Amino acid sequence: MQMDDMIMVSIDDHMVEPPDMFEKHVPKKWRDQAPKLVRKGDGTEGWEFQGQSTVTPLGMAATVGWPREEWGFDAAVMAELRPGCFDVHARIRDMDANGTLASMNFPTMAGFNARTFSESEDKDLALIMLQAYNDWAVDEWCGAYPDRFIPIGVVPMWDVDLAAKEVRRLGAKGCRSISFMEAPHAWGYKSLMSGYWDPMYKALCDENMVLSLHIGAGIAAINHAPEAPVDNMMILACQISALVAQDLLFGPTFRDFPDLRVALSEGGIGWIPFYFDRIDRHVANQAWLDHSDDFGGKRPSEVFRKHILACFITDPSGLLLRDRIGTDIIAWECDYPHTDTTWPESPEALWSECQQAGVSDADIHKITWENACRFFDWDPFKLTPRDQATVGALRARAADVDVTRMPRAEWRKRNEAAELGA
């Protein structure tokens, strides 16, 4: 097997939603109240809904086209972004250039947990817009290329019954997952183990969908020192995945919902072997805590492997310990268009790590596409013949795609010229 023979399915990427996304999906009577991308007094752009600005500035969310010296948390305007961030047709071309067959795209303006809608005052209006968001994401963005995208939606966190209802609505549309807050108790919501979310868990099981818990919001569970730099948030965010796994394993969730599947999106894998050692020894050693019935006669690590998909961008230590983790529960991510992405050299980066770790051809296939497609129940070859799904085949049809990083000013000039030309 050579690098070009790999088939790569990324289960963690992001789209920067275009400003016209609500036009076709909000009933006319509420269209003037839909979220809008607005130009601010400082010349930057951002989304506003019910008088509030959304959380993520455009610049932080979409640095993929810029040279590293221009990265940062500062905001930007859409015209300064690489078109693959917000234009689905350009995204497909960028995926081809990276040898990526398929992608699951998490929200930006909505927040991983629909925060834009959950924090708004008028919840009736918020629900209308949240459903319109999902309709755009599933029907328009993913629907434009059903052979290339695994659909994912969001749910209203302010009402679990509405959340369950939206899961069922999404399931009927062919959606494969929902993006949800990884540690909701850190933001004043009921915890994952509280029992409050049970109607939503049941809906996910009934609809054969995955609960995707993306790192980020859960960082609020850590009481950082007041002097802590932003590095602490960015480095420690993936450690929250262990907290999430603990809540799910040692709470009643997996006992009550034996078919529930959870993806720890961008959580990394290197921490898992130590965590397995710790939880298995803990249950065996601390018999006085009486966990005898909690895991159905299995070790906690075995229950983890049944329910959880562990996801990584780069993780050389984790790949060295893949047999301790379980090669059947490891899946790769690209993270386009964020700062952590390996685009446009994802095949080179992953191939190098796999070769250094001595990963077999069979296990490479598991990690790059088989595990993800099985877990999300998504057939990568339903519309794409396998011989056209490889890194080499995809890149061959994208030889003309310019992957050069350019200053924001250059992107603005190009995008504005393209808009005038259209």
Give a structural overview.
- With 422 residues, this protein is α/β, with parallel strands linked by helices.
- It has a domain at 3-15 and 87-110 and 125-382: Metal-dependent hydrolases (TIM Barrel).
- It is built from 17 helices and 11 strands.
- α5 (160-172) packs parallel to α6 (198-206).
- The model has no long low-confidence stretch (mean pLDDT 94).
Uncertain stretches? none
For this structure, the CATH topology of one domain is: TIM Barrel
Named at the architecture level, the CATH assignment of one domain is Alpha-Beta Barrel
Average pLDDT metric: 94
CATH superfamily of one domain: Metal-dependent hydrolases
Please outline the major beta sheet: 6 strands, parallel
* Portion in strands: 5-15%
Q: Class of one domain in CATH?
A: Alpha Beta
SS-based class: alpha/beta
Rg over C-alpha atoms, rounded to the nearest angstrom: 21 Å
Task: Describe the global form.
Answer: globular
Please give the order of strands in the largest beta sheet.
Answer: 6-7-8-9-10-11
First-to-last CA distance: 43 Å
Percent of residues in helical segments? Answer: 25-40%
Order of helices and strands: EEEEHHEHHEHEHEHHHEHHEHHEHHHH
Using DSSP, what is the number of strands? 11
Please report the number of helical segments: 17
